[in-house]
Specification:
Layout: E1 2-3, E2 6-7, E3 22-30, E4 36-44, E5 54-55, E6 60-65, E7 73-76, E8 79-80, E9 90-94, E10 108-110, E11 116-119, E12 130-139, E13 146-156, E14 164-165, E15 169-175, E16 183-186, E17 189-190, E18 200-204, H1 206-211, E19 214-216, E20 222-225, E21 236-245, E22 252-262, E23 289-294, E24 319-323, E25 329-334
Parallel strand pairs: 6-13, 15-22
Antiparallel strand pairs: 1-2, 3-4, 5-8, 7-11, 9-12, 10-11, 12-13, 14-17, 16-20, 18-21, 19-20, 21-22, 23-25, 24-25
């Protein structure tokens, strides 16, 4: 169009840089006398930042093993931009805020050019099992346009934790005459790993298995008696219990279980000999000590306290037994004057 003696070229319909990047116009100028001149006008179309980047395959999810080394590539995000040139040059970045409430401490970084997300710190599934990151793809236009997407990263468990017993030492007690199969102690161990890595079974040490006095249920952890016990032979058992997980390779921990046998009165007192011979002078005064009597009882406490008495014999009226306080022995004393011509006093 002609405007104030000048030719004004205007856009008559929408332009599309991707369809037509150059136009060639022939412009003719004609005066009132009919004289004219023509000129070629080249119009170059420049790209405008019309399109924002768009992530492909969004939203994203990925997994990474908790023992993968720092620098492991977790996944690569990709966005496309329908513009060209700098308007289509995309830069990737991780948003500062994350669902975990962690900003710069998130153990991930992204390559601004390639979109590769890598680990920047060691991972621990038992501390944080999932991360939700937000990634921005921004083009180089002015003003720039951008797109965002969420990325869910799951930390995959590895068997990096042994089972842990709830107490460092188990104490148990049981009567020595307990029946076979009697419950003695209840083991309990936990493993923070997942699946088979966190599934615990129980067993006793090879030494305890060989002894065979006790067995443990591999699933419940219940320790039971497995044979007749005798406190007088073994008063205390020091078992070694093991908790082992089912990971590959398995991990385990050990704890001591002290089992004390409680005494029952299952043993009678016994003299060192079936026949005890003592000597005393015939002129000994009444109340003289003939000798000491001692019997041993392998039980303990009240069950092992021995009381002495004369229960018979032809000459029982000539003697008496006296037990001193705190003594395990009894003294045999004369109660009458003795006569050598009538030797051989016999007591029961």
């Amino acid at each position: 169009t002609s405007q104030n003696g000048k030719g004004l070229i205007t856009v008559a319909q929408p332009l599309d840089y991707k369809q037509e990047r150059r136009f060639l116009l022939v412009i003719t100028a004609t005066d009132s006398g009919g004289r004219s001149d023509s000129a070629n006008v080249n119009i170059n179309i420049t790209d405008a930042n019309n399109f924002a980047p768009v992530f492909e395959n969004a939203p994203y999810s990925a997994s990474v093993f908790e023992d993968d080394p720092i620098g492991t590539t977790v996944l690569v995000v990709s966005a496309i931009d329908a513009d060209v040139g700098i308007n289509a040059q995309i830069t990737y970045s991780l948003n500062e805020e994350s669902v975990n409430g962690i900003a710069s401490n998130d153990p991930f970084a992204i390559n601004p050019q390639t979109g590769a997300i890598v680990t920047t710190a060691s991972l621990d599934r038992e501390t944080t099992g999932n991360y939700l990151l937000t990634v921005t793809a921004r083009d180089g236009g002015n003003p720039s346009l951008s797109d965002t997407t969420d990325i869910e990263i799951t930390v995959t468990d590895v068997n990096d934790n042994p089972p842990q017993f709830k107490v460092p030492l188990y104490h148990a007690s049981i009567k020595e005459d307990a029946l076979i199969g009697t419950s003695v102690a209840q083991l309990s161990a936990t493993d923070p790993d997942l699946g088979l890595n966190g599934r615990v079974k129980y067993l006793l040490s090879d030494k305890d298995i060989e002894d065979g006095s006790f067995v443990v249920d591999p699933t419940s952890g219940t320790i039971r008696t497995n044979k007749v016990l005798d406190r007088e032979s073994v008063p205390v058992y020091h078992l070694q219990a093991v908790a082992v997980d089912k990971g590959s390779p398995p991990m385990s921990s050990t704890v001591e279980v002290q089992v004390k046998l409680e005494d029952v009165n299952d043993n009678p007192p016994s003299f060192p000999s079936d026949k005890i011979i003592l000597y005393v002078a015939e002129n000994s005064p009444v109340g003289s000590v003939v000798g000491e009597i001692h019997a041993h009882d392998p039980d303990e406490g009240e069950n092992a306290r021995v009381h002495y008495s004369i229960i018979g014999g032809d000459d029982s009226n000539h003697f008496s037994l006296v037990t001193r306080p705190g003594s395990e022995r009894a003294q045999l004393l004369t109660m009458t004057e003795l006569d050598y011509d009538h030797p051989g006093k016999s007591l029961n």
